[in-house]
Structure formats: structure tokens, C-alpha cells
Design a protein that fits this description.
heterodimer; A: 4 helices; 25% strand; elongated; B: mainly alpha; Ferritin; globular
Chain lengths: 173, 256
């Protein structure tokens, strides 16, 4: 019995899982949930094109171009398609709920509070309650939001009243 | 809805340009606070808000470029000052902190009303983008509602400066809803699901109670915003235009 060769789909996912987020390198693009999917399609001139759909975390995220370039180069290196395209999509909004459990753990380990699951706290698209973040250092929930805006668009600044540490949280969006 | 006739396409281009220019110009005005905002946290916040707005403008210019075959950077930076179509509200210099907060408060609520309606636009690429933008703008509303309250309750001087800012900007704030040439066409196609006048009434219903609750004078209803609400330009804007086109103008064909 011969083990099946890994499918090219899983080869693409594995390659993408190696790419770090440019602003928070502790988390991969796959765990960040910004890869909506990808597809192979025939080119009119023969051969195939691989198109990856990338969902920006924030519309104005300045790291988008770096992500596109990294994805394009990494997948071109796989020699799995004749052409690689990375397309931005807003067809469904990226939300912080898309960050995987492994991604949340990676954020916490590097000192970022993972985003609170929002689901019902957005009514329509409006946030009705400012969520409480859990301190990534001491796990206390006795924290206060100091600033809903931080050093990058996707980060907010909190303070922990128990271990007296300021910390950053991934903004629920 | 992938094919638009020429009239509808032109009307949609007008709407996209108006929205993009609002976000772009206000983003540049308020980015002037970077480094000199009253407190460090606010320096970070205003910079982040401005970055959001310029990001929204970029996405809207790209949508526009895709529609008309132009180039987003060229649209953003390649026009003379009188080619911009932002509302007259964005003609004013940042002035003092209370004035900037007054403008942000008036604009954020106008933008929220506009985006809420456009989230159901029949032009799906715009509806998709707007749904995403609203999740970011919700933080702006929370933030500037809080600043309004903070300055209104902060003492006589901050209250007076804020009231003066609201008073000075009130007429021009209406121009976010100034009629567009192609508006009837956009409403008929449900690209703009409601008329701008309907949206202006809804904005007034949001803004007035907040001003009253902060014990700020609620200006009387101003008449309809004129058709020149998005074409009037000022020397203050001409100065800003010189600033934000300085780098792109210094080497027109440069790539970065």
C-alpha cells in the first residue's frame, strides 16, 4: 500500500501557513483567517492560474501589499501553477472571529490579548458593547480599555488592574 | 448587476468620488494632529482614525478606477485643487482641538447614516466594501461621541470652543448631503437606496439629541444644502492640497 501524495490543495495551505503576519509575526496568515480560499483555473493560453482570495483585516491595513507579495512569491516557488494571482476581496467582511484557536493562543503567548468573540455584540455592523479583554500576562479580567486605537489599525490598548501591566489587544471588529 | 449603462456609471462615479474625497481630505486634515494632539493617547487615536479614513478613500478610489478605467493614485493625487468633490465641511483647516472634534462629530454621524443606507446598495461591490467599513467606523462614533461629552462637560472654555466650532460648521455640515447631478438615477437603480435629503433628515435626528444632551446649542434647521456644496473650494483647502500632493508632484512617474 502506497501512501497517497499530499494533494496540491494541502500543499498550498501548508505553504500559506508558513507565512507570518507582517505586523504581528507570531501569527500566520492562515491562523489570522485572512485567506478566504483559492482556486486553480485554466489559462486561455494553456496551463493553469492559481488565484488566492485575501481578506484585509482593516480596509486601510498598510501590510496588505506586503502580504500579497509574500503569498505570490511563496506560491510561485511551489511551481504548482503557471501563474499566481492574489486578489483582495470584500465579498464577505473579515472579522476578528475568523482568527483560529491556534492563532489566538499564538497571540496570547506573544503578549497580545486575543480578540473577544464578537458575534452578537455587533448589531448590524455597529458595536454596542465594548468588550472586556483578558490580560495576556496574568489572565485577569479586571482590565480597562485605555484607548480603542493603538499602534496599528487592528490593535487597542488596555491596562490590567491586577498585574498593573499595560497590554495590547487585537481589536474586535 | 455587472453591466451599467453609461448614465448610471457616470452617476455612480460621481457618488464614489464624493465619498472618497470626503474621507481622503478629512484624513489629511486630522493627520496634522499627529505629534501635537493634546494627550499621547489621543495622538495615537487621531492618527489611527486618519489612517482608517485614508484607507477607506483608497478602497473607494480603487472601486472608481475599476469602474472608469483610471488609476486610483492618479485620481487621488493627480487633480488640481478645484477638481476635488468633498463636502464644504472639509474645506476648513483643523483650527483648534475643539473645532476638529466638532467636525469629526458632525461628519462621523453623517458618514454613518450614509453607510447604513449604502450597505443595501444594489451595486454589490460598493455594498460589500461599506459593510466592512462600518465595522471600523463604529469605533469612530464611540470615540467622538465621548470627546463631545468630554469637552462639553470639561469647563467653560472647552464648552465655549466646542459650541463655537459646531456653530461655525453647522451650515457646511449639511453639504455632506448636497444633491448630486446623477442622484435621481442612482436612487432609481437602488444603488443609492434613499435620497440624500432623506439621509440628511436622519442625520439631524441623530445629531440634535446628542448636542442637546451635552448642553450645546442646537442650531436651527438650515435650508437645503445648495448644489455647490461639493464644488466650493477655499484657500485653506488649496494649502492642504499643496501639502498632500507635494511628494507625488515632485516626481510624477516615481514608483515606490
Amino acid at each position: 500500500m502506497v501512501a497517497a501524495a499530499p494533494s496540491r490543495e494541502s500543499a498550498v495551505w501548508s505553504a500559506l501557513a508558513e507565512l507570518p503576519d507582517p505586523e504581528i509575526p507570531a501569527i500566520s496568515l492562515v491562523d489570522l483567517g485572512v485567506i478566504r480560499g483559492f482556486a486553480f483555473e485554466p489559462l486561455p493560453t494553456g496551463g493553469e492560474r492559481l488565484t488566492v482570495e485575501l481578506m484585509p483585516t482593516f480596509v486601510g491595513c498598510p501590510a496588505i501589499d506586503v502580504m500579497r507579495q509574500q503569498i505570490g512569491e511563496r506560491l510561485t516557488d511551489l511551481r504548482i501553477a503557471d501563474e499566481v494571482t492574489v486578489a483582495l476581496t470584500f465579498a464577505e467582511p473579515w472579522t476578528s472571529d475568523r482568527i483560529t484557536p491556534a492563532g489566538r493562543e499564538a497571540l496570547r503567548r506573544s503578549g497580545f490579548a486575543p480578540p473577544v468573540t464578537i458575534g452578537s455584540t455587533f448589531v448590524g455592523d455597529a458595536l454596542t458593547v465594548l468588550p472586556i479583554a483578558t490580560c495576556p500576562y496574568c489572565a485577569s479580567r479586571n482590565t480597562t480599555l485605555e484607548n480603542p486605537f493603538g499602534p496599528t489599525l487592528c490593535r487597542a490598548i488596555y491596562h490590567c488592574a491586577d498585574c498593573r501591566q499595560p497590554f495590547e489587544a487585537f481589536k474586535p471588529v | 448587476m455587472t453591466t451599467l449603462d453609461a448614465t448610471t456609471r457616470e452617476a455612480l462615479a460621481e457618488l464614489l468620488l464624493a465619498m472618497a474625497d470626503d474621507e481622503f481630505v478629512l484624513g489629511f486634515w486630522d493627520s496634522e494632529w499627529t505629534g501635537i494632539a493634546p494627550i499621547l493617547e489621543e495622538d495615537v487615536a487621531m492618527s489611527s482614525v486618519s489612517q482608517d479614513e485614508i484607507g477607506h478613500a483608497k478602497a473607494l478610489y480603487e472601486l472608481l478606477a475599476g469602474l472608469t478605467g483610471g488609476d486610483a493614485d492618479q485620481i487621488a493625487f493627480g487633480r488640481p485643487a478645484d477638481g476635488y468633490r468633498h463636502a464644504a465641511l472639509m474645506n476648513h483647516a483643523r483650527t483648534d482641538w475643539a473645532f476638529s472634534i466638532a467636525r469629526r462629530f458632525l461628519y462621523e454621524h453623517a458618514d454613518a447614516v450614509r453607510l447604513e443606507s449604502l450597505a443595501t446598495s444594489a451595486y454589490q461591490p460598493l455594498a460589500d466594501l461599506v459593510i466592512k467599513m462600518r465595522r471600523e467606523e463604529t469605533y469612530h462614533i464611540l470615540h467622538f461621541d465621548l470627546w463631545l461629552k468630554r469637552l462639553a462637560e470639561g469647563g467653560d472654555e472647552s464648552h465655549a470652543r466646542l459650541a463655537a466650532g459646531i456653530g461655525r460648521l453647522w451650515v457646511d455640515a449639511q453639504t455632506v448631503f448636497a444633491p448630486l447631478d446623477g442622484e435621481a438615477c442612482l436612487v432609481a437603480a437602488r444603488i443609492l437606496p434613499e435620497s440624500l435629503e432623506t439621509l440628511r433628515s436622519r442625520w439631524l435626528e441623530r445629531v440634535r439629541p446628542r448636542l442637546a444632551a451635552a448642553d450645546l446649542p442646537v442650531p436651527a434647521t438650515h435650508g437645503l444644502p445648495g448644489a455647490d456644496g461639493r464644488t466650493r473650494r477655499t484657500d485653506e483647502f488649496a494649502w492642504l492640497h499643496g501639502e498632500f500632493t507635494m511628494v507625488s508632484g515632485s516626481e510624477a512617474e516615481a514608483t515606490w
